[in-house]
Batch of 3 targets.
Target 1
Amino acid sequence: MIEVKDLYKRFEDKEVLKGISTTFDDGKTNLIIGQSGSGKTVLMKNLVGLLEPTSGQVLYDGRDFVGMSKKEKVMMRREMGMIFQSAALFDSLSVLENVMFPLDMFSSMNLRERQKRAMECLDRVNLVGAEEKFPGEISGGMQKRVAIARAIALNPKYLFCDEPNSGLDPKTSLVIDELLHSITHEYNMTTIINTHDMNSVMGIGENIIFIYEGHKEWQGVSADIMGSTNKRLTDFIFASDLLKEMRQAIRHEKDER
């Protein structure tokens, strides 16, 4: 479990995070949502150590990440997997070599063992047969699946995903969502997904944190959203007419019971 306690982040005279306290649960897909500029990206960067908080704590299973030495943070990051918005694959490396990259950097496996582990991860994301291709030769959805395979190569305890469905069509986005959800449960990881995708929120949101102007406005599960009375949350979630109609239909059905 990752626990955030009273987290603040200030850039000069601008306070971006304002005392956020929350938890991200093991074995669940934890989603961070909010409008552009709300602070959710800054929150994720503080969680992984790309930014240092002005004050507050980030606890990984009780270990204070903020207070760790540089060496301790390097060791801690070996327990983290990261999926970037752009997939961030190395164009000059094959699919197999991309997945092997963290193994080459951080594992003590020999070459044969690293290749075997990378192929296991590619098999998990249904990409066996694509291992010799290069990123420019595969689709955007396949690139995201390679990124997932690379992120799980070291069996991380914690998986961070920054807008994993960015640039993907709705059908491919559902495939990525389901893959992230099933891998989270299979490996009992603490998965944190930063997203604008309302399909992801309603489909795989097992623990949802809504950030509004730098503070935690709401936390709950997707099933709670339809009946929420938090106006800021509902204005954000039900921005589209279709979702508004869905919500009204569900409330009408409840009223008739």
Target 2
Amino acid sequence: MSNEEIIPFRIDVPQAQIDDLRARLGAARLPAPLPGDGWDTGVPVAYLRELVEHWGTSYDWRQAEQELNKHPQFTTEIDGQRIHFLHVRSAEADAMPLLLTHGWPGSIVEFLDVIGPLTDPRSHGGDARDAFHVVIPSLPGFGFSGPVTEAGWDTARIARAWAELMRRLGYERYGVQGGDIGASVSPEVGRAAPENVVGVHVNGGPGVMPPLPLADDELASLTDVERDRVRRIGAFMQEEFGYIAIQGTRPQTLAYGLVDSPVGQLAWIMDKFREWTHPRHELPDTILDRDRILTNVSLYWFTGTAGSAAYVGYAQASGWGAKPANSGVPTGAIVFAHDVGIRRYAEQENTITHWVEVDRGGHFAAMEEPELLLTDVREFFRTLR
């Protein structure tokens, strides 16, 4: 018989690990800058040196730990894997349960700014009727849900684990929301438990990407905005796909550098925070709070999960482009300026009932544009309660 026990959890990183991190940062050996020292060859040395200095001398992990520990956290074992999650219940009696799933290179830290407004809208200028009970798991292999001990943790298996988690928590009707890997997992939860999931909401767009290269007549039938998204998908495959190729094929080899060097871990993550925040030409820590980014990086560092997060995130057994069945669950999307979701492709495998496009914001929606995301989540689920 499987163990369904739910165990209270509190983050408490030993001081020796914090001291070790600071010592490593203080003794860091940075590479010489490549010609131009620009972002096109990776994170510039001049930029990272300053961030390393801040992480090692000014950043306060204990303060971040305290903020995370304000929220009730738990662990449970599902399908042989330890799953860590935040579970914040609303004081509103008729609140709707909502399962939030992060992505890579994110974590539960992504959602810190929206927990309060979601669970207690009354105190945040919102309507009490929009209240949610919030469940935020760490993906298998990520943070305190790491490392993974088995292969096969694709989005469908994660979704089945999430449905089981919600069952254990006693939730029979609930919504799901996510971005990045979370935007792939969330529709799968709808497929795993269509009788329980009342609605699926994603930022970025659910479903497969268009089959590139597109035929001329299909390209011509798209709007200018959609054609730009196709162009950016093509550019991504040319210029940025390398990290997926490495993480999806050699995650263990990569992990030696990232788990042993905080500077390596920081650079690997900051590269994506720069590329995927909006506008791209702005430094990521002028768009997002610098210490909040470092809390996210610190979570990867202290748990040593660079390898298992890479392994779970991109070594997906189902592969890219496989089209699953439509669950029939109402599905909504908010597509930010950086995003590349295209409705006609998303509709091939999802029942799209809500599609909103905005001209700002990037990949890390809950961190970059919490108000926009909150407004859209509330609006979408209002009709499904």
Target 3
Amino acid sequence: MANESENGQEKTEQPTPKKLLDSKKKGQVPRSKELNSMTVMVFGAIGLLFMGGYMINHISNLMAQGFTLSRRDVFTQAAIFEKFDLALSGAMMAIGPFVFLMTVVALFTPLAIGGWTFSLDALAFKGDRINPISGFKRIFSSKGLMELVKALAKFLVVSVVAASFLWTKSDDFLGLGSQPLVLAMENGAWLIGLSFLVVSSTLILIAAIDVPFQLWDHAQKLKMTLQEVRDEMKDTEGKPEVRSKIRQLQQEMAQRRMMEAVPEADVIITNPTHYAVALKYNHDNMAAPRVLAMGKDLIALKIREIAVFHNIEIFEAPPLARALYANCNIDQEIPSHLFFAVAQILAFVFQLRIARTNGTEIPLRPDPYMPTDEEA
């Protein structure tokens, strides 16, 4: 049966990335206590198997040194503190590697499911945690039932395996009493580690069942209704009217920047009234003429007004103006098939500047050649 939200809608949609991120910030990540217990116990057993002899030797030597007192040690107060320092450092040397192994396992096991997370929300006080009614609901919920089943299963499996192993190794355990003390301690540590490993290995089966269940249960809790997905999209992307207003402001800013570039143009090619394209060319740093601004109707009129105010040459070439408007983008070079037509106009504009400056004869106004569709 699908989960239902408070408003009665079914939670049929998978959680969105934002939902997953928000839940992680709140400390809501999948966790498996069985996985944590299994890894700590299994690696602890392995650690005892490989480090048991080392720890027993160190501890036996430590005990021998600690209980061996000379006459000086008995009558010298400072010797007691020396013995204590040696015992403390020896104990750290004996159990240090094992403690380090357990710390690493405990810290890195959560990375296998859910990862590390720290959330102040998870630490915050919540009244329902101490509410008896809420507590009973958790106990008798489906998750509480699952925990009860896991506990009974663990008890049954671990008890059967432990009893079977101890029965098969009973002779080895009884034989420890006839061995020398140090050898008995080493063999005892090995048997304890082996027993611990066998019993702990049974938890692998429990963890293999619990981990998929926890992942599934976490995904079910985070499922969303269609309305929640729509609301999140509105919150993330904004309402349609807000997006429209943002686009309008962006267009206005782009037009403002475009108009600010018009005074730098060398020539304005017009339709003459419907289109206007502002071009600039500098042979030192440009491979081809570049479009600074372009527009039609009211924008074209504004470009022409700025051009008149700044004494920029306006050249009427309707076919070329339409071709530039259709094939060019602002702040990009013109296409190659329009090079020749634009070059004719720019050559005329540059010659016209020189003629007006020197008072020489005005050059003839060119008729730009426009390539046909086949030539383009």
